[in-house]
Amino acid sequence: RTGEFSAVTQHLKCVCLGVILLIWEVYIADIYSFLFYFFKLQTAYNRKSHHQVSNVMHIRKHLTLTHAQKMLIRIDVASVTSWLAPIIWEGTFDPTLIDFIYKQQNLTIATTVFALGKYTLFLKEFLESAEQHYFVGFRVNYYLFTDLPEEVPEVKMGENHSLTVRKVPSMNRWQDISMGRMEILEKLIENELASEADYIFCLDVDTKFYSRWGVESLGRLVGVIHPWFFDAPRDQFTYERRPESQAYIPAGEGDYYFTGAAFGGSLEDVHHLTKTCREQMNIDIANSIEAIWHEESHLNKYFLYNKPSKLLSPEYLWRDINAGAAQIKVVRFSHVAKNNAEVRPNV
Ligand SMILES: CC(=O)N[C@H]1[C@@H](OP(=O)(O)OP(=O)(O)OC[C@H]2O[C@@H](n3ccc(=O)[nH]c3=O)[C@H](O)[C@@H]2O)O[C@H](CO)[C@H](O)[C@@H]1O
Ligand SMILES: [Mn+2]
């Protein structure tokens, strides 16, 4: 009985020590170092030693710097891939600093969005929320493709933001609308954007912005980790598994599962991406096969062999504003809840 008792005390001791260490780390260490430098500084002033004062100030400055750096580290998520591409999470970048750096480059970001059929009802919230959070202070040209231009709502554009509406033919299957985006994007980049933009993002319309999406997202080739699979093991990724499809990815391969609802990058890279996906989908059509998740499957195949240079965390496309996860400190952009049967032309 005594042995049992002392084992419990031992355990308790460890827990107490752990808690004390934690409190020390989080609260007291900083106060201690502040007092330490405060008194050192006072002594230096009392002695009227200018050299000593600046010496202490220098150490103090260094201390604050490492503290700031500490703030830019996330230990609960990976912030770099095995091919050294950054993964952007809240807390891994300084928005003020990164804005300042990109401001000097005078960039234009083309942004495409499709709203066919009943999906025009998502436009108002999409555009209004984008104007509050999406590349505020930078030049943005939206290219909106729709079969119903008369349904496009009036939304006041911010400074340096503009909206171009393009009419496209209606289609009977939502899958064809979704996949058809690749070819339209390919042609848009080819025929028009060369002298008009530096970067492009292609976004789903059944979405809404809730927080900053800014220049931290820019890169040569940018993929967004799918909000349902960021925490899932690779064998659960919903890649196309039939070898007959061009989107086929064998078991044991693949790095991340990316969403088809948001991707982007330089014009050259996104042109190559959209062209490749369009060609692969055409081969599938000729072979009478449709990839399980349509262009998203082809996008994942593309990213497997053409590694993105930057990854955006699911903060940049969350599943629904009401769904939570410990790693998600900020929801920047999110799918809105929708009733597929109500808005899609087919089921
Ligand atoms: C989170 C996620 O993984 N989303 C993917 C998933 O669906 P979603 O359920 O999000 O697909 P969706 O219905 O939003 O369709 C994709 C996009 O096509 C457009 N659209 C679609 C139907 C229509 O009648 N009118 C119209 O304009 C619209 O811009 C929409 O945002 O599967 C799709 C195709 O497999 C895409 O890969 C999406 O990126
Ligand atoms: Mn969608």
TrEMBL record:
Its main location: membrane. The chain crosses the membrane at residues 12-39. UDP-N-acetyl-alpha-D-galactosamine binds at Y119, D204, V205, D206. GO terms for cellular component: Golgi apparatus; membrane; vesicle. Gene3D superfamilies: Spore Coat Polysaccharide Biosynthesis Protein SpsA, Chain A. One of its GO terms (molecular function) is hexosyltransferase activity. Its cofactor is Mn(2+). Keywords: Glycosyltransferase, Manganese, Membrane, Metal-binding, Signal-anchor, Transferase, Transmembrane, Transmembrane helix. It is found in: Membrane. One of its GO terms (biological process) is carbohydrate metabolic process. Mn(2+) binds at D204, D206. It is a single-pass type II membrane protein. The keyword Membrane applies. An alpha-L-fucosyl-(1->2)-beta-D-galactosyl derivative binds at H226, T238, E296. Binds 1 Mn(2+) ion per subunit. The active site is at E296. It holds the Pfam family Glyco_transf_6. Belongs to the glycosyltransferase 6 family. This is Globoside alpha-1,3-N-acetylgalactosaminyltransferase 1, like 4. It comes from Sinocyclocheilus anshuiensis.
